[in-house]
Protein 1
Amino acid sequence: MKIKLSKTDFILVIIIASILGIILLGTVIGLASKKASPGKNLRNADPEPTPREIENLNKHTDSKIAAYTGLGTIRGITAPQDEEDPGTIVVITPWLSYPEGDTVFFEELARKRLIITGIFTGYFGAYTKVELLSRTEDKIKQDIMEQINEQMSLGKISGIYFTDYIFLE
């Protein structure tokens, strides 16, 4: 069985093959030049809030703490650096520490989850990637913690930890 292609189909096949060839060639050149730096923006993650890690954190404080992990993974966009830059996608997975056994405050955190998520996205959207990278992570956590605690009426969070804190380019 012989397949007969029209002139336009033949041209379309040539264009698709050319595009695939260019992509393949670009990939090979990129890998061979060793200029790629995968993982350059990775950082050491804060400890997962496992019972063992909470126990370790409690050894360093006078009062016992618990972890609120209900925020999940938050995706946002940083402020653009110029007119052509749409901003950089930032992915964070925060968890919050609060006094252990404070079920009323835990319920307030759960109830205000969307407000807290908005604080994170608003904070990261207010700064460019360069500005965020020039700030210390402790300063970022402190600023966000102050904004969250302003919204709370039944208690205060005592710390913010990031399991993921990644800029996607």
Note: The chain has two domains: 1-36, 51-168.
Protein 2
Amino acid sequence: MVNEVGNSVFRIMEARPLFSKHGIFRVIQTNQQQAQEAVQQIPSDTLLGTSPDDIVNALVDRFRLDVPVIQEAAIYIADTCEVPLDVRNDPRRMVSDRSKPCYVPAHRTVIAIPFEGDPACFDIEPPIHSLNPPRAMVQDRELLLTDTRTGNDAEALKRDYTRTLDAIKGCLQRLAESVGPFNATLPGLIRSACQDRKQKLLDSAGMTAALGLPIKRRADAPSAYTVPVQRKHPRIELPTVDAPFQPEPVLSTADYDDILATMRSMARVMELSPVAFLEMGEQDLRTHFLVALNAQFEGGATGETFNFQGRTDILIRANNRNVFVAECKFWAGEVSMDEAISQLLSYLSWRDTKAALLVFNRSRDFSRVLETLATVAGTHPCFEKDLGRKDETTFSYLFHQPNEPTRKVLLTVMAFDIPTAVLQPSNRKRKRYA
């Protein structure tokens, strides 16, 4: 069957009606169901041992509907030549014997329409559609329209081509409007299915405790350090997990935020009593933070503890596993911060860990230091995502471990400005602090 317009026929041997095979609402319903079923088919060790973000990204990439977008600026003439045209079924022509072919000279023009997106979407019927849909051949990332005519009416050719292109673009626009809400809710649907199945697997194996490691706050914790908690709100394949899943202690996000809040309150202490910190070095400042942590939490916060490939400054352990690591560094420029991040990551040897980098600044231009800190993390080879600032001097990032891209590290960089000099006026004994 061909679509005739005047003496023009858009036709190619493999041309087919577009947007006429599957209803859009049925496609959305099917993809939702298949996405949930795909979660159930993931091997349990992979589900339990892989970052939820990696699983969600892989399944979203598989089941989202990527409606094609026409690249109008790239449309071109793919072929033009003279061909014989069989006109035996043309009622406007006098043909003596319509039982056999009757050829006349004609001119064929093939127009290629490049697009970006999933070619399978050309089979989906939009909510509002025509009973006479446009026809074309779908080849790789192009639609091919063929016009064969016996006349030389260039305006008619342009008019018919434009009419067909507009029909295709209209169908694609209606499809995009229909699939937008589905694509937006798909990550949440998959994440919820993953969480439900993971919870069932852990419960059935008696491993519920692996989901979080609460740190018990001391009943006699002094309130001086208490501060309000600010809670942070190509094809992708699932990573391969070689070893069976083993439950490991995990620091809960709430406890992680409490630890950061305790350390952040130290900045206020330094501001109120600068003379006490003027001569402190890296080790003394680290001890200052350890005192605050041990006053607030039960558990081992120790200094200079050897761990994996090196030693780190502040460490919290549970069940012989590290659940929190912090490194203390004086600001010495952008290169030193990149090295400090690499050093901290080299200490980490567990799954889904949380860490912090404490940066002490003794220069006079603290604003410039903060501007540099805001960009230095993004250039590191293990950088994954910027999670935003908790406040003006606290930066939150997602990294992966150097040798295991599927193992994520939540890293918080906290900057502290401490006194740099003491001035002794000649006529006064009272000191001022820069």
Note: The chain is about 35% helix and 30% strand.
Protein 3
Amino acid sequence: MQLHDLAPAEGSRKNRKRIGRGPGSGTGKTSGKGHKGLKARSGGSVRPGFEGGQMPIYRRLPKRGFFNIFKTNNAVLKVQDLERFEDGSVVDMDALRSAGLVKGRRDGAKILGMGEVTRKVTVKQILVSKTAREKIEAAGGKVE
């Protein structure tokens, strides 16, 4: 085989369709778009969800529910998770992130009273449940 023998496989290459180049081309005059109408216009096409004038499905179906735009996305932690901090350390959102307890986009965190805590930690700017507050203060810690 020589360099001049190289050719693409039969049928793998097609000439592009030259639209609007006279009646002899087969796609002259209306350029394969038919006569008038929305699809014949420049930029003309129906929008997504259009059902030809029939009442579309998103308007036929009843709407249910409510989406709260003010909802906060808090990470939920247990009191026993505070055991991984040193005595006397300050626990805030930055400390929780660096310890790997809070991941992703969160508006805050809340500590619930599951488990036990023995470390004296200061909890700052974190929501704390009533039982969790009692357990942290019983261990000698503070909630601010």
Note: The mean pLDDT is 93.
